[in-house]
Amino acid sequence: MTLTELKYIVAVAREKHFGKGAEACHVSQPTLSVAIKKLEEELQVKLFERNANEITVTPLGEEIIRQAQSVLEQAENIREIAKRGKDPLAGALRLGVIYTIGPYLLPDLVRQAIAAMPQMPLMLQENFTVKLLEELRTGEIDCAILAEPFPDTNLAIAPLYDEPFMAAVPSNHPLAARDSITAEELKQETMLLLGTGHCFRDHVLEVCPEFARFSSNAEGIRKTFEGSSLETIKHMVAAGMGVTLVPRLSVPKEALLPVPPVKTPAKSKGKEVPELPSYIKYLPFSGHVPSRRVVLAWRRSFTRYEAIAALRNAIYACELPGVTRLS
Predict the structure, then answer these.
(1) Distance CA 279, CA 140 (A)
(2) DSSP type of residue 288
(3) Burial environment of residue 1 by CB neighbours within 10 A (0 to 12, 13 to 18, 19 or more)
(4) What are the angstrom distances between the C-alpha of 71 and each of 31, 138, 140?
């Protein structure tokens, strides 16, 4: 039994496919298949049920593969211990981020990381919460930036910040004249939601639960529309299709600046240059302010403590306007 063979069975169990497992391990499919068959013969157990269209793991195989994952992790820990003897931050850190945080935090975070820990490049991946939790469990990523709540998977958790939500309305909407808004006032509006799988969708439905019934049947298309990303939904708001909620870090800085008095359009080479209009008005909530808690999560067995601490410091060095930092 070798670490390579254990790596192969973990990859096939994850991909549910011998070809994709071989591709993930950067070997040919025959090489992987022969190695797995050899391991099954050595253990005298069947790890996989091979059907025409899919590969399933046998009940005993599930237990063996869990142990194999643990062994591979411990082997990797040996390498990390050796690296830490030279430089605790040496080597890449595999970081996952959910879609509604990545575009707004990562540009500043990458700059801070390059400045503070150039020897530890960040290998970044954006995905849904459920997928990132699975990749944490299987060791595909080292840590993840997530928004609570999410299922308890026995991960180590460090709170980063509490982020308030703001309402985004078309600039020609009657609500755009307001300085603030309440959740009650949104109930009569057409609400734009992220698609199923985004945790931020659930956060919006917590603020406006009455829209949950519309998002699951055809009749509701008159009250809710779904988008694939926050930026797509903002374009829909700008087009006047409805209103939505957005996390504070997604709000452009210039959108919160005081509106300057209207001036005569500037001229360039004899032609008038019209001012660029703002099509979205962002409104804070009055009274109860809905928010989400953003945390850093990692496996308890992950031993690069200095890397986690350095990443947290880099996050705290980011500007993070409008959020409440947590220690």
Answers:
(1) 41
(2) S
(3) exposed
(4) 22, 12, 14
Q: Which amino acid is at 292?
A: R
The token duo for 58 is 């046998």
Distance CA 53, CA 51 (A): 6
List phi, psi (to 5°) of 147. -110, 130
pTM for this entry: 0.71
Q: Which two tokens stand for residue 19?
A: 């070809």
pLDDT at 276 (0 to 100):
46
The structure tokens listed for 251 are: 């709000």
- The two beta strands, 55-57 and 122-127, are unpaired
The alpha carbons of the chain give a radius of gyration, in whole angstroms, of 25
CA distances in angstroms from 301 to 70, 91, 308, listed in the order given: 9, 18, 13
Whether residue 320 contacts residue 101, with contact meaning beta carbons closer than 8 Å, is answered with no
Q: Which two tokens stand for residue 284?
A: 């804070």
Tokens matching residue 23? 């591709």
User: Rounded mean pLDDT of 130-137?
Assistant: 91
Instruction: Report the helix count and the strand count for the chain, using DSSP H and E.
Output: 10, 14
